[in-house]
Amino acid sequence: MGCLFPADQSTELLVELDSVPELFLRDSLRLTARVVRATGDSVPGAVVSFSSSAPAVLSIDPAGEGLAVGVGSATVTASALVFASATPATAEVRVRGLLEIDSIKPPMVRFGDSLHVFGVGLNPDSLFTTSLGGVELNAAQYVAADPKRPGRLGRLSLWVKPPAERFSTLTLVSFAGGVVFPDTIAVLQRDRYEPNDTTPSNLGDVPAAFYNPALAFEAGGRADVTQPADWYTFTNPATADRTIIVSSDFVGAATFSVFVTDSLGWNAGLAQYVVGSRSWTIGPQTYLCSGKSVTRNGVPVVLKEQVFPITIVSLANLPAGTYHVLVPYLAPAQPRAYQVLITRSYQSSLPRDAAEENDYCDVAKPIAVTVGATLSVDNPHDIDWYRFSVTTAGPASFTAVAGKALNPNLPDPDLDLYLIRDFRPDSLVLVTPATTDGSTETLSVGVLPGNYFLVVVDFAGSPTQYTLASTIPPAPPAAPFQAEGATTVHRRAPQERVSAVGARLRAQGARRP
To answer: pTM of the full predicted structure?
Structure first.
């Protein structure tokens, strides 16, 4: 009988090692291998021993049980026992860390773009810091290569925000170990929609939502633009609810948002924006009706409100058409981030009330709808327009009473009332305001025949519910019924006619500005 393992055949043998997967820190594995002849046949009963070139990276015992204990690379060797001349098998094994950036795409990005990061440990749930040039970034999306192991390989998409420098360091810090793995990318000093100051960026049809949290106010400003702004348009393909939200950590008296309906243009000669003759606008302290501002004694009047770092406009049943979003700002010393959200929904702190939609003059509701109704200031910078007509001169009074602020962290409501005479298409004239402090506001004034708006503003911008009571001069009684052919003639004495004319002139003179 011959030998089971003839020594004179050992040089014809080699070790075949099964594939070794890419490992991650703290992974365990079981290596397998076999001894084969040159023909590919396995040698029965042959024993293989395993070793690692870097035990501090991959610890392997002779039986092939391994544990990834460090980050780096190691060479695994499988050798045949007894057959000393058998060719051993080797394999390079990489042990990945808990957080590693492999690559980024694109290498150069703009504010408002998404930066895609590829690597290990990019699940936002396990990251402590995600910053570019020292600015914390928002995660847009994370896609794991293996959904069952979201902490392994994946792609993290980030919104790029200012004020990152032209060459900035992308820094991710994981919860595990607190190790920083930086990478460097170049960032352009403008957002993705620039230039959009004197010509708008068209966001197109927004059927569901548009969102970008990484838009930017540029540093400095153009010399030919007196009021820098970012200008966007979007299309409402059919009547639908819409909510437009603009917010920023940087806000001031001239940092606000204006929403315009049918037209907005740029007049290069005047270096200013021009609103169409049929347009209404909505924005903190900025309200136009039929392209006209409210005036008093020929001077524009501001419907005053607190300025907040967020503007929310919820519009019910907004008609189909093209709408403009203008975001003016004071040119800051460095880029400032802001965000825009446009949704096809009605998002508000309070449900829409019985008078909605009445956030702009074209949809002002008859003041009669307020009788017995619970109305609301549904968001900061929400104002309500009501309309009525007077056919007989006389006293009018209005009282608005607000409840507590919806959010206990906000100040108590401070309602203000503005009575506006509607002389369109010529003008809108403020008759009188009532702007005392407090959640209750009363306006009393004599009114002449004509058309009017009553505008309710919450100076504090605290979402709340309110009631509105009004008294306006009643219409004159209808003429008494007369039988056909009957004639009634009343002749006024000459002195009576003179007295009546004089009384009307005195009344008009007393109310003349």
So the answer is: 0.74
